[in-house]
Design brief:
single chain, alpha+beta, six-stranded mixed sheet, 32% strand
């Protein structure tokens, strides 16, 4: 048996949904795959790909190679199905079953104008429509549409698909992403047809993204803020070959409807009294001509990123009345999404309000202060007649919540009519982790749930309050964890392009991308820009994104070097941020989050060195030998300056000698190996003397786990993980956490008090990469190591990593006086297994290792 699996085009995995089978065509298309085989030590000896479509017929022929990748060089037809056929031959001569699928080139030359409401009212939902006629048989049709901030499309009264919050959030002044619907013909009928579009505010306009400056930190205009707008093109190809185009132009109409107003932070109002019944069906009258608007300025690109979809519906776990007309609901899980309510018969004007919160006050009411200015409230106003909805679910907003309050349906309302709809970008894969310690397994579940709740086109910091930003300082360690749990094939290139869109001519990127909060240049700890490239390369084998972004990566590091004095970076904003309160410079019950023990400029300079090392690796991979040499030399200069300024060899002490300073230096590999035992001993001694009250923050806490495990203090790392007293993940669990907190303190203030914050979820990397020992050593997992660690008190651990090559599985147990290790190696890959003091080379298949317990 030989069968292909995990097939990807341009490193985006092909799934059932047509939205995952779109590519942005350049001069080539790259196909990668894994395979399932019933033979051990099997690998590919040859492969073949064929493409066919509108005017396209390509056959690679049998290509003799072990690399599980083929590249097509040439043009691809636009918007029509491209049939892909793949087949491989293994080293024994067996040929695989034919793999067949269809994908689409979503790239198109944009010719449509922008339209919107003739009477712009901030916060109001815009309705747009266009009728047209189909007078002969249709062979194919493709719709391309972009509504900024968000759009919801209808054809002849029916919703286009189940995606939410389309299109992807970007800086609209630099880029606009349109959604492609290549199977649009299925929605058309002979005669009159109608396309309807609702356009919401999203990130085009809200109380953060404004056209005019306001007060406070965001006292500046936003280049991408403006009136919500819509642009679309429909191509219809008739049987016989004739093609007709429909564009957004003066023939479109605009109006208002039941979805009255919307705001991503404050919520949505649906007023059935304002319903425009039949507005998206042919024959409707009552709208006025739409207004032609100026383009946002961004170039048009197809949205290739997987859409935000409904992941799960959570039933009410428990409920209780609050007053005579309100009920509080507990869904048992902190999540990001909206409520779905099956509405009873309502009276005209009856108003229902849904309020959301992560936490409760002591009296069982919602604790909403941490939402800050975000109202997080959705409202429905009934018409009392046939215009009322049977099921109400907000469209243009989402909230972070575990608890909700329903006002207006009475204290005896049947709560089984309400579910929480979890929404996030469709990045699911089959990775998994569990171990013999229930708390550690639960921490993993917290980390994954936190990641899911912060995937909405960008990887945000929180889903609930008036922020929801792609903070690049937090992401520097987070982006090393994400590829183990989620599909980064389309997400990381999108994030990299978002950052490139923020860069100035001097290479300065911004702290958030798209840019809302923070500064420019960004905090130097924002190596996440390059880390995203490195993880795409190592986990997927994606060199294309390295080639595309190399000059931008280099420009960012050159910017840091320009902000350096003799190779010491001379600024920093956050550094090793938000450590436990006693290690911060201010009262922790306020918002004090700057480290009192680890200087920002030390962290900044360490990441400058890290960038140079990564740039050298990227250049070598791209065959840019001179650049590889330059950046290796530059790394040496930064390291020499850092060590000369801050290292005391007599004490094996780096900078202040804080836990973060020591472990960061060891993690970077800049402390001499001969000094490493003394350097890490300082960390151990401080932890042991303080009852394991660590002083590391959002970056170095992850590195702390790595370094302790690598240098002989595994039991210290395990103690940190299994603690249940403050500060620890166990303390969060004891306080009912179902997602990871922003701070380790249980606080009662509106400051830095998110209870759904993925930066400390980066510890999940350690579960895969250390506890089960799975780390790629060659791009695309062509080779990987399995080097698990075995804490004394842990009896078993198990992980599955769903890679581009197939599933890697590692399981170890301590039983019957022996240590047992099981390793499953995917077809065509090689594992270097470190076990019981020996290293074994393992080809594909299932492998068992055993050794006496010491």
């Amino acid at each position: 048996m030989l069968q292909l699996t995990n097939v990807s085009v341009n490193y985006g995995r092909l799934k059932e949904s047509v939205r995952t089978r779109l590519i942005e065509a350049g001069a080539s298309a790259t196909f990668t795959w894994g395979a399932l085989s019933d033979r051990s030590d099997a690998y590919q000896s040859a492969c073949r790909a064929r493409l066919s479509g509108d005017g396209l017929a390509w056959d690679s022929g049998w290509v003799e190679q072990r690399v599980q990748e083929l590249r097509y060089e040439g043009a691809l037809p636009e918007g029509t199905p491209i049939a892909l056929t793949l087949q491989i031959r293994d080293d024994a001569g067996e040929e695989s079953e034919l793999y067949t699928n269809v994908f689409y080139n979503a790239s198109v030359k944009w010719k449509a104008g922008w339209i919107g409401a003739a009477e712009d009212e901030p916060g109001r939902t815009v309705y747009l429509r266009r009728e047209f006629s189909i007078d002969r048989p249709v062979a194919s049709a493709t719709l391309y549409a972009c509504g900024i901030g968000y759009q919801k499309l209808y054809v002849n009264g029916e919703a286009m698909d189940g995606a939410a919050l389309d299109p992807a959030t970007v800086d609209y002044s630099r880029t606009c992403q349109y959604v492609t619907y290549p199977d649009f013909a299925a929605h058309l009928k002979p005669g009159a047809n109608c396309i309807g579009a609702m356009v919401g505010e999203g990130w085009r306009r809200n109380h953060l993204a404004k056209e005019q400056p306001g007060a406070g930190e965001l006292n500046r205009p936003f280049a991408y803020a403006g009136q919500p707008a819509f642009t679309a093109m429909l191509r219809v190809t008739y049987v016989g070959g004739d093609t007709e185009w429909l564009y957004t132009d003066g023939q479109w109409q605009w109006g208002r409807g039941a979805h009255f107003s919307n705001d991503i932070f404050n919520g949505e109002t649906c007023d059935a009294n304002h319903a425009s019944v039949g507005w998206s069906r042919p024959g409707f009258t009552g709208f006025a001509p739409a207004k032609t608007l100026k383009a946002s300025g961004g170039r048009m690109r197809p949205m290739i990123l997987n859409p935000v979809i409904e992941h799960k519906r959570w039933p009410v776990l428990s409920s209780w009345p609050v007053g005579e007309n309100s009920v509080v609901l507990d869904f048992g899980q902190n999540l990001a999404g909206v409520l779905r309510v099956e509405l009873p018969k309502l009276n005209k004007g009856q108003t229902i309000r849904l309020s959301h919160a992560e936490e409760l006050n002591e009296d069982g009411t919602l604790f909403t202060e941490p939402l800050r200015s975000a109202q997080a409230t959705d409202t429905y106003i009934a018409s009392g007649d046939g215009r009322d909805l049977s099921v109400w679910q907000p469209i243009f907003t989402y909230h972070g919540f575990r608890y909700a309050r329903i006002d207006g349906l009475g204290a005896g309302f049947d709560v089984r009519r309400v579910t929480a709809v979890e929404l996030h970008t469709d990045l699911e894969i089959r990775s998994a982790f569990r171990c013999g310690d229930a708390q550690v397994t639960k921490i993993h579940e917290l980390c994954v749930a936190t990641e899911r709740a912060n995937q909405h086109h960008i990887l945000t910091d929180c889903p609930q309050r008036d922020e929801r930003q792609g903070w690049m300082n937090d992401a520097t360690v987070r982006f090393e964890e994400t590829p183990y749990n989620f599909d980064i094939g389309r997400m990381f290139p999108k994030l990299i392009r978002d950052i490139v869109d923020t860069q100035n001519a001097d290479g300065a990127m911004t702290c958030t991308a798209p840019f809302v909060f923070g500064g420019q240049p960004a905090d130097p700890v924002c190596s996440s820009f390059l880390v995203a490239g490195m993880q795409s390369y190592m986990h997927l084998g994606n060199k294309d994104i390295l080639a595309e972004a190399f000059d931008a990566f280099a420009a960012w590091e050159n910017c840091l070097l320009q902000h350096s004095d003799d190779y010491i970076v001379n600024y920093g904003y956050y550094g090793d941020w938000a450590s436990p309160s006693y290690a911060c410079s201010d009262d922790a019950m306020g918002d004090g989050a700057k480290s009192a023990v680890t200087p920002e400029v030390f962290m900044s300079t360490g990441y400058s060195y890290h960038n140079c090392r990564m740039l050298s690796t990227f250049a070598a991979a791209l065959g840019r030998d001179a650049d590889a040499k330059h950046w290796a030399e530059m790394a040496g200069k930064v390291r020499a300056a850092l060590m000369d300024k801050w290292y005391d060899p007599a004490e094996a002490k780096l900078c202040t000698g804080s836990q973060a300073c020591q472990v960061f230096g060891l993690w970077l590999g800049i402390i001499p190996e001969a000094d490493a035992p003394r350097a890490v001993r300082r960390v151990h001694d401080e932890l042991a003397a303080s009852d394991y009250r660590f002083t590391t923050g959002n970056l170095c806490t992850r590195y702390l786990m790595d370094v302790l495990s690598r240098y002989g203090y595994l039991e210290d790392a395990w103690t940190l993980l299994t603690k249940q007293t403050y500060p620890s993940y166990g303390f969060m669990l004891q306080q009912e956490a179902t997602t990871v907190w922003e701070r380790f303190e249980l606080k009662k203030n509106p400051g830095m008090n998110s209870h759904n914050h993925p930066m400390y979820g980066a510890v999940d990397y350690w579960f895969y990469a250390y506890l089960c020992g799975i780390r790629p050593t060659k791009p695309g997992y062509e080779e990987f190591e399995v080097a698990p660690v075995f804490p004394e008190k842990l009896m078993s651990a198990q992980a599955v990593v769903d890679t581009v090559r197939g599933e890697i599985a590692v399981r170890w147990t301590k039983r019957y006086g022996k240590l047992h290790l099981h390793v499953t190696v995917p077809f065509g890959t090689t594992a270097k297994v470190s076990f019981a003091g020996e290293t074994h080379t393992a080809g594909s298949g299932f492998h068992v290792f055993s050794a006496p317990l010491e």
